[in-house]
Design goal:
The chain has 5 helices and no strands. By secondary structure, the chain is an all-alpha fold.
């Protein structure tokens, strides 16, 4: 049996949030690319001594994994996050236990929320934390905007995981 809808309706805000996650990650992925090729993006740090054969694939893989993870979060609002799709051999059509999705999503959300906490501490120079220096204010503003979007991932994933959990939990007996 193929399901084309979720068991219970998904809140509109959750669908919008899941669709925005890849867009939140895209600026930081694009920011990383020149860094992989040795361009400092205005950071006031010595150039990397790592060879390009290492840094370029590293940055490309990291960026691709970031976008793949963001796209995977769509499973929190799509039918394939509740029932194994038909194209998966052996498991096709089986119901996915809610905790098999909720627990990894919450752990990822908490992990990314730690990045948000670190970002706040560094940006506002709290508790002895500091950010890398920049050659001018424009580079710093661009870096803050790019990284600021990315650190919204944690709270967004936590909100999606909570909505998923609420939607998938058993209905109370009447």
């Amino acid at each position: 049996m193929t399901l084309h809808t979720t068991e219970r309706p998904v809140p509109r805000w959750a669908v919008t949030t899941a669709r925005l996650l890849p867009l939140l990650a895209l600026p930081v992925c694009l920011w990383r690319l020149p860094v992989g090729f040795g361009f400092q993006m205005g950071m006031d740090v010595p150039p990397s001594t790592d060879p390009l054969w290492f840094t370029v694939p590293y940055v490309l893989v990291l960026s691709l994994l970031s976008e793949a993870f963001a796209l995977l979060c769509a499973g929190l609002v799509r039918p394939w996050g509740e029932t194994v799709p038909d194209w998966v051999p052996v498991l096709r059509g089986r119901r996915i236990p809610p905790y098999a999705v909720t627990v990894p999503a919450v752990l990822a959300g908490l992990g990314f929320t730690l990045l948000l906490v670190d970002w706040i501490l560094c940006v506002f120079h709290l508790a002895g934390f500091s950010d890398v220096g920049y050659t001018n204010g424009w580079w710093q503003a661009l870096a803050l905007a790019v990284s600021g979007l990315f650190v919204l991932w944690g709270p967004a994933i936590l909100a999606l995981a909570l909505a998923y959990h609420r939607r998938r939990r058993p209905l109370p007996a009447r």
